[in-house]
Every structure is written in structure tokens, then in C-alpha cells.
Amino acid sequence: MNRLNLVSKRLHNHKLSLAKLNNPVDVVRWMGAVQAQDFNAAKWALALRMRAATNLAIEEAFNKGEILRTHVMRPTWHFVAPDDIRWLLQLTSARVNLRSGPNYRKLELDTSVFKRSNKVLTNALQGGKYLTRSALKAALNRAGIDAKDPVRLAHILLRAELDAVVCSGPRAGKQFTYALLEERVAPAKTFNREEALTEITRRYFKSHGPAMLQDFVWWSGLTVEDAKRGIAQVEREFEKETWDGRIYWGPHLSQTKLHYATHLLPAYDEYFVAYKDRQTVVHMKNGKPALTSWDVLGPTFIIDGIAAGTWKRTGSGPIEFNSSRELVKSEKLALSDAADRYSAFLG
After folding, report:
1. Residue range 193-206: mean pLDDT, rounded
2. 79, containing H or E segment
3. Looking at CB atoms within 10 Å, which of 28, 73, 163, 235 has the fewest?
4. Which residues of 228-247 are buried (b: 16+ CB within 10 A; e: fewer)?
5. What is the mean pLDDT of residues 50-76?
């Protein structure tokens, strides 16, 4: 395998080339989960992988509960499919709690506090209610649970998400709401831990491959031991390739096309954030990556799958580009087309 093969296959598997999906939930389910702490950016990340999508349509799907936003895997928000949320939480919540442990202790949050806070949240939300963070803060304080500190409140709600007590509700204007997971999400197929491990491993390498073990460990938040076991369970389904002395796994693909391979990627797009090594697909300048690992976690544009600069849009003004190299005319036209697609998405 060489760099061109890797980029071409990743674009295909990320659904950033010809093969596009129809609905937001199809994208989320295909990817396994989509990082979504920046809500507006994450909606664009879904739209890029769909045949046609608008900001309003994805917002509507979110408000209807067709996709959910919760803490899962690493301690950050992700979009997840409703039929996946329970088994994903069962697989990964213990690791997120472990990583959150120092903050829990610093904020004087322990099992007894979480037991009480989960009960308060359940009572406040039951009956199909959707409440904002400020409303839940008031309910907790009335019950004698100190939630005045926004950081303490955030960790109380984080734990309730990880305990599968609450998940996202529809937005109230621009505010997010919470709902009871058992009321918001219909029963779905259950997995035991090994089945869940197999499923998340399969989905990651199908949608993100070619990728390395270290990439999967970073993305999933699982231990190296668990990640190795997951790969061993699905290894026969994937192609094992070597590049620059490193081992990659991904679907068996013959040839892929770089159609529509110029995109304005949002902040925290899976094309970059899902890998420990993010500079594999960054333009090289004087033998070094022209963009840092942190640069590509912001809005980045790719040309033929390679990060070639950053972009930003302030208010309703035009998009500003900061290229890491000189662009030829055809690349400028492709970038203009990508900007038009983004404008169409915003409406």
C-alpha cells in the first residue's frame, strides 16, 4: 500500500467519494458514532456523507430522535443511532467513567451522589418531558444536590448519560434538552460484551479503514487488549496491509475513484479526529506536514483527500481560505464547488 491507495480507500469508506448515504441515521450507523461536541459542525459532517442534505433536515432528524447526541466512548459528545446507544454505552461507559474519575473526585461526586442525582433526573423527566440543562439544574438544587457550579452539573449529567438514564431530547430554540433514554429510545437488539466489541471493531474498520490498531484504540477509548481482541474477531473480514512499516486494516477494495474528493471538512470531522496519526493525509512541505495535528481538528479543506489548508466563515460573510500551498486553477474551481455545496447546505 502507498499513500495514494490509503487516501483513496479512506475517502471511499468515509463516504466522501461517490458512494453516499440517504439519511442522517444511515451515516451515524455506518460510522459507528460521529463526534459531535460542535453540534453545527457535526451536522455538516453528516451532510457531507449524504446524497442530499440541508441543515434544517438534519436538525429535524435530531429533534425527532432519529439520531441522538450523548457521551459515549471518549469523554465527549457523539451522534449515535438509537438502536446502538445501549450496547455502545454498555461497552464503553466504564472506560469513560474511569477517565472522568479524577474530576468526579475533585468535584466530590461519588456513587451515592450519582444514585440520588439519577433519581432526581428520572423524576423530573418522566412522562415524556424534555428539559433544558437550566431546568435540570434547578431540580437538582431543590433536591439538595449542589448543581450551581456548571462544571459539577456537567459531570452529573455526563454520569446520567453513561448510566443510560438520560439522552438528548429535541432542541428548544437553540438550547439542548435531555430526555429519559427509556422513554426516548425504543427497545433494540441487545449484545453481550464480546458481540458489542466485535460489532464496534467491524464498524470502525469498515468506515474508517485503512487504519491502525493505535487509531482504533484512540477512537474507541478501549484498552489495547480489548482492541486487539476485537481485531482478532473480525480480522478475516478485512485486508491487512503494510505501509512504511506500519500495519493497517480495512475492507477489501479493488479500485476507488476520487470523485468529489475536495471538501470543506468541519471541526472534529471523523476524517481526522478518528485517528491517532492524523498527519498521514496532510500536505507535506519541505519534508514536514504543512498542518499540525491540532490544525486539522479545526475546519480543514481537503483536495483529493489531502489536507491543503484551513477555512472559516464569520457570520454570514464569505468563506476565508488559508492554503498551505499554492493552488492551481482546477483546484480553486473544485474548492469553489465545495464552498457552494456548503452554502446550499446552510440554505
Report:
1. 98
2. strand 77-80
3. 235
4. eebbebbeeebbebeeeeee
5. 96
